[in-house]
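Record format v2
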Amino acid sequence: MERIRTTQLREHIGQRVILRGWMHNLRALGKISFILVRDGYGIAQAVTQDENVLAALHGAHDESVIELEGAVVAEAQAPGGVELRDIAVRVIAPVTDTPPFPLNKPTVNATLDVFLDHSTVALRHPRKRALLRLSAGIMSAFREFLNGDGFTEIQSPKLVASATESGANVFAVDYFGKKAFLAQSPQFYKQIMVGVFERVYEVGPVFRAEPHDTTRHVNEYVSLDVEFGFIENHFTVMALLTRLIRHILARLAEQNAAALQLLDVKMPNAPETFPHIHFRDAQQLIFEKFGEDCRGEPDLAPQHERWLGQWARETHNSDFLFVPGYPMSKRPFYTHPDPADPKYSYSFDLLFRGTELVTGGQRLHRYEDYLAALARAKYPVEPFAYYLDAMKYGMPPHGGFAVGLERFVMQLCGLSNLREATLFPRDTHRLTP
Amino acid sequence: MERIRTTQLREHIGQRVILRGWMHNLRALGKISFILVRDGYGIAQAVTQDENVLAALHGAHDESVIELEGAVVAEAQAPGGVELRDIAVRVIAPVTDTPPFPLNKPTVNATLDVFLDHSTVALRHPRKRALLRLSAGIMSAFREFLNGDGFTEIQSPKLVASATESGANVFAVDYFGKKAFLAQSPQFYKQIMVGVFERVYEVGPVFRAEPHDTTRHVNEYVSLDVEFGFIENHFTVMALLTRLIRHILARLAEQNAAALQLLDVKMPNAPETFPHIHFRDAQQLIFEKFGEDCRGEPDLAPQHERWLGQWARETHNSDFLFVPGYPMSKRPFYTHPDPADPKYSYSFDLLFRGTELVTGGQRLHRYEDYLAALARAKYPVEPFAYYLDAMKYGMPPHGGFAVGLERFVMQLCGLSNLREATLFPRDTHRLTP
């Protein structure tokens, strides 16, 4: 007899099958005992009144790994409308201790810190693992869209000789007695690879040594990076990003319906064209709304981003809002300026429900422009020599963006802390598990 | 007029089209000039006798980014059997210098070191980028197979508090004044996640601070990691790995035919069942063949692995050979011993054309076994506490493996140095580009 998955039970009504998984719950109602078994895919119920069956489970705590053999019977009351009866049980790996907290309650009843301390077990909770399943779904849909659009995947090195963005907030590594750094982003490499493949993407870890703990930041996260050539300007990039986001959401709805339902996710409104408001106009709107004059500030405050998100929902029926035109002063040196007003840039943020999800834009592509930009920023040229070579030997107008994977899950599921969407988060206080 | 790809030209015979890309070559035969344009996908030829057209290219060196508009004409002599005539040219980004070495010769005429120094440009060479396209193809087929087999993708942290395998050869990171390390593998995390999803995989960087420079090692590489539960023993793992390798090879043949052809790749023989020879028997064979008595040694020498590869090809018509049963003394503490002879393990190497491509096996899954194994290895328990928790609270018999991405490309393409298959390799001497 082949073992089947709990999610396949319905296809086997009237047959005897084998299930294997973790004992999610065991409870008695009078003489009837209900065993819930959780495998990698779902949860199934088995029912018995047989003392011998229960004797096999004697001393086995929740989370014991078990095998159930039984007859599949339709039963409206059971989860999934089907249950196992006339069962035999075998314990594959007994658990002799009570788990740190119950995994079979509807929600995890623990503070975030306690949850994270025990996450190597606690992530088995159906709601918690559903979040990670959505992460996997986002990565898969991201790659699917880009593969279909002529992009090539790259995996660039994470050990680098110099900082990517500004030299601040990088982790230093002892590299055979020399100093190396952990890449803050694959930015330079993905641009270089536009010279090779024209259209590239990367899914991988990035490292930010930011010393502040906030609910929206961790020090290592997964970045979904895209870069492509032969663009008109940053609006070409925004158009591709829009199609990508819509593809990801459509795929999640199709392929991760169970996880979305378990987490009560309200799918976002993602219109065919996302609304956009220039940074300058966003500041003007905020001024008119709040009377706070942030015009001239180089960035938007989180509470103003949240309000802009609300504004986009109310006036454009969209959970996504592009804010193009960030001031050059706050953008990295490779950012393309707005030729009509070089104080502003051809870069953008994409807000998802009022929180920054994506940063992107058009980059410089002319060698001379890079030399000028580095001089303006008072950076030395030498550490960037290999990167500048790619620009010197022919680079088309190009741009791209980076999506924070955990941010996406956080905003999609309405989580209050990015750590809930992060597999084993790293912050200033936490390096394990 | 929409821009099309060079690889789409044949579908547009008789029409006028736009191509954009890099000027791969410009040469004159008498009055006729041939322009080769390379985009992210292929190379196309344009022909002109018009002095005004050529004037537009005056001073533009190879690798200049150009746009060509012209009429698509079938021409048996042209690459791909089609060329552009009656053309107009526009230079999008001129190159004013000669590239470090020519990218339009059949092979790159430079030593590996010179090539790597200039790789941010030199990777544009069609043969070089074909290698990276194969890497992308392998990753894509790897995920496709596993997604179809009920696996969930994870992305585990690369910053860790303690070494994964043995404490040797790890890179140390300054983590907010504390010491952290770069993960040598996602081993512990993928095992932990078997408790959550049953079947998991990860594609990501791993870091090995090995101080030796060999042609088969670099210090950062891409590891394709798999781990899954409810196995019988390491043969269950080997069977899944066999199906996976065969799937990857079949997909490459289908989807990367152009790259394989360009690189003159002889596709390997990968029979439905790969032959296997127990480590002990392999040593016996080597003894009989060479008279060198390596019996009792805990590992195979590279030249002996190469010979075993040859033996598998000759006697089993297979480019792949499993060597299960490595001695426990050389395997990490979590390795499952052979119950019948606990000096040997339930772990294996997979040789591809005589070089180790994959290491894998069954792991311990009982908490008590872990405590005993750590005690035997004289490791403290505390740094592993989070990992042991996953074992304590119910873990099925499980196992997995790790495939080296660059190794796969190296052996597939018959490269003599792993660096040729690595995007911006890191070794003791090299940290840029």
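Chain B has a mean pLDDT of 96.
Chain B has two domains: 6-93, 126-421.
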